[in-house]
Design brief:
2 copies of one chain form a homodimer. The first copy, chain A, has about 120 residues and is mainly α. Helix content of chain A is about 65%, strand content about 10%. In chain A, helix 5 packs across helix 6. The interface between A and B is large, with 56 and 56 residues. Chain A binds a DNA duplex (30 and 30 nucleotides) through helix 6.
DNA sequence: GGAACACATGAACACATGCTCATATGAAAG
DNA sequence: CTTTCATATGAGCATGTGTTCATGTGTTCC
């Protein structure tokens, strides 16, 4: 197919053409549906407002107005993002008197944030 | 501050008002700059094209045209996304004859994808 | 040097996304 | 039952983002 392949075959004893590599990777990769789901999951962590909310809820459950005050973001904006996080099953809430107390609905949230943090903070 | 707090204090021996919870969470949360960085990191994994590229490169280094063929996405689109991934230091590349061979530049990429996968696939 | 291939890049466009503002809902207190 | 506090929601808007199309750059091979 091209010289690189020939060189590789001789050099590394890897008798694969480009087509073979493609086929091999295709077999080993996750299903496309799974990757779309996965992208949607990471999308939740890719917005700073949502990430801040989840990061805060990692420390303690909190009602909506406290989240808004803590983060210095309007109540409406928080509410909109909480709606999305609930739809994704990452956050849940319960009513407690006048307040809606929010909390993480999934233990994975903490570990995903943690592994990301370990990367960012070197 | 309100009745819930009083109930909590009596019930759980947690003498915290809403304000105290906010202060406590604020102390324990990561710095805001870090959270913005972290959101930017997750943003890279939040687009299906970029995620597919990284997932493919998790299996094997590949040249641009093979990535495009594997994923069934135009060479131009792949190239644009690769540019972004390189800027974020998640992917690197070297020239090899006519081809540009791309590979993961960061071991964290695999672990981030893996932990996300473990969540998506239950 | 020129043709052919591999990749990069810029402009344009369509679409998604997150916020604000105004308003609705819903529980609780008087 | 009306007011008040806490939260939700819809419309509108501004901005961001990803793709395509056309073209530029760089490398190999003749």
């Amino acid at each position: 197919m091209n010289n690189q392949d020939d060189a590789l075959e001789l050099l590394c004893d890897v008798p694969e053409t480009h087509g073979d590599v493609i086929d091999s990777v295709r077999r080993d990769m996750p299903e496309e549906d799974v990757l779309y789901e996965l992208a949607d999951l990471f999308k939740m962590f890719g917005d700073s407002t949502r990430l801040k909310i989840m990061s805060a809820l990692s420390e303690s459950e909190m009602c909506v107005c406290d989240i808004a005050e803590l983060l210095g973001i309007s109540q409406s904006a928080i509410s909109h993002q909480l709606r999305i996080l609930k739809q994704s099953k990452l956050v849940s809430s319960r009513r407690e008197g006048k307040n809606i107390v929010c909390f993480l609905a999934d233990e994975h949230v903490r570990s995903i944030i943690a592994i990301g943090l370990s990367h960012v903070t070197e």
